[in-house]
Write a structure and sequence with these properties.
This protein has about 475 residues and is of the alpha/beta class. It is built from 12 helices and 19 strands. The protein has helices at about 15-40, 50-70, 90-100, 145-150, 155-160, 180-185, 205-210, 225-240, 250-260, 280-285, 310-320, 360, and strands spanning about 80-85, 110-115, 125-130, 170-175, 175-180, 195-200, 220-225, 265, 275, 295, 330-335, 340-345, 350-355, 370, 395-405, 410-420, 440-445, 460-465, 470-475. The strands form 4 sheets. Strands 11-12-13-15-16-17-19-18 form an 8-stranded mixed β-barrel. A 7-stranded mixed β-sheet has the order 3-2-1-4-7-6-8. α3 (about 90-100) runs parallel beside α11 (about 310-320) and α8 (about 225-240) crosses α9 (about 250-260).
Length: about 475
């Protein structure tokens, strides 16, 4: 057997303490360098420019920053170019509507016709242009008219005229009437350097279903920002080739906007008015937004009884001269003593109804009109409506605006409204009849900045009567804690 092994003894490396010491010093050295390095970063002084190129680059960046953050100048009427689609066949009649709102020397734009028409220097109308030939574009819709192609190119053709300092192109028909101050108010809300397609839909639910709830109906007018018009002009002719089966011009425009990935920005103050009959119910309950346009004036009744359509619009615009921001805006109040509900559509008409109707009911348009297909179908509209009352005691007494003027001594606008002469049914209710009132006087102050604030209807108050047969009202901003209630 081999001899037993001797017990093992631990082995010690003679250099181990030296290695431990070296590692410790290395760690301390690295920690010191780390602290010194980051302390120089934390306490490093601001950099100084050592050459002209670096200083110049900094100045350029500062100028760019200032230019990007500086507030752009306010949009004005001079920044809008109108493109009006017109027909030579209807020109002699339709030009009368255009004269009502066009302002030579202030408004800019062009009328685009299919054929030459006779014009005189006294007409004070926009420049007349002939649309380019569109025979190369296919049109296959059996129910429409190929003039839709010509009309759809109005914005692009207006752009090609090369007018300077244009921010917006506004499209309208020859029977569209614009309240231009309110158009400016609407467009001033948006950045004209961005892509915007602004307008509104039809009053007809069926029309919106057939075309689109995302389409601006052209008769009510729509606005396209300048950079979007530039992009549209580049591609529109190609776009039109793809939609030969479409019916009109506005659905073609909508199709091109979709290809450009630009949705409709809705502004309900643009009015297509796809209805027939009286606009009283619609105008008396206008939404709380600037009243921008009217359309289909040859289809609806004259807005003021006893006047032609053009005379009625001219009469309405007389009130707009004194307070365009408030034209057609609704106010509601009550004559508590006589238990009357009073509905004011400033600059247009006032209605008095026996009894107390809630504001929620009065702010809803009464169906004084038929739908686009001449039917009494309450489901045919794209908004809420209420029926015209059949109760003989609640037939509205309607007072139409007679005159509007500014009283300098009072610093107020004074509107005179007179009772419309028609027969009113006998009422058994034991309350005073509004028929005893033949004149309503409305006092108001101009409120040109109302749309820079949160939307709110004006308040209305019944003033002490000064003479028999006359009712005095005040219309204006609501005071603190003012509520429409009895």
């Amino acid at each position: 057997m081999p001899p037993s092994a001797a017990p093992a003894t631990p082995r010690h490396h003679p250099n181990l303490p030296t290695i431990h010491s070296a590692v410790s010093w290395l760690f301390l050295s690295l920690l010191f360098l780390y602290i010194v390095y980051y302390s120089t970063i934390l306490f490093e002084p601001a950099p100084t420019f050592t050459n002209k190129t670096t200083c110049q680059d900094s100045d350029n960046r500062l100028e760019n920053l200032q230019s990007n953050t500086s507030k752009p100048t306010q949009t004005e009427l001079k920044h809008i170019a109108f493109g009006i689609a017109a027909s030579s066949r209807l020109w002699q009649t339709r030009k009368e509507y255009l004269k009502l709102w066009w302002r030579p020397g202030e408004t800019r734009g062009a009328v685009w016709l299919d054929k030459r028409v006779r014009i005189t220097k006294d007409d004070n109308l926009p420049d007349i242009h002939l649309s380019n030939d569109t025979s190369k574009f296919p049109y296959t819709n059996p129910d429409g008219d190929r003039s839709a192609i010509r009309i759809s190119r109005v914005v692009s053709e207006t752009l090609r005229l090369g007018m300077e300092d244009v921010r917006w192109f506004v499209m309208g028909d020859d029977d569209t009437v614009f309240i231009v101050e309110n158009l400016v108010r609407i467009l001033s809300k948006y950045d004209h350097n961005q892509f915007f397609y602004i307008g509104s839909t039809s009053e007809s639910h069926i029309q919106n279903m057939l075309f689109s709830y995302g389409m601006a109906f052209g008769g009510g007018g729509f606005a396209i920002s300048y950079p979007l018009a530039v992009e549209l002009e580049k591609m529109q002719d190609r776009c039109l080739q793809r939609y030969s089966g479409y019916y009109g011009s506005d659905d073609r425009m909508h199709a091109c906007m979709a290809e450009l990935n630009v949705p409709l920005t809705k502004e309900p103050g643009f009015h297509q008015y796809d209805v027939h009959g009286s606009l009283l119910g619609l105008l008396a309950a206008h939404p709380v937004t600037p009243f921008v346009s009217l359309h289909h004036l040859d289809v609806v009744d004259p807005i003021f009884p006893g006047m032609s359509r053009a005379q009625g619009i001219k009469h309405l615009l007389e009130s707009a001269k004194y307070d365009s921001a408030s034209i057609i805006q609704q106010s509601i109040c009550y004559d508590k003593k006589r238990e009357w509900s009073i509905l004011v559509s400033w600059g247009f008409a006032i209605q008095i109804v026996r009894g107390i109707l809630s504001p929620r009911e009065l702010e809803t348009p009464a169906r004084t009109f038929l739908n686009w297909y001449r039917k009494l179908d309450y489901t045919a509209y794209a908004f809420n409506t209420r029926p015209v009352t059949r109760h003989p005691c609640q037939k509205p007494f309607v007072y139409y605006m007679s005159t509007t003027r500014y009283d300098k001594a009072r610093d107020k606008i004074i509107g005179i409204y007179t009772l419309h002469g028609e027969e009113y049914p006998y009422c058994k209710w034991g309350m005073e009849s509004p028929e005893k009132i033949d004149t309503i006087v409305v006092l108001k102050k101009e409120d040109s900045n109302r749309w820079t604030k949160a939307p709110r209807r004006d308040c209305c108050r019944v003033l002490p009567a000064k003479e028999k047969g006359t009712l005095y009202l005040w219309v204006g901003n609501c005071q603190a804690n003012e509520v429409i209630e009895l």
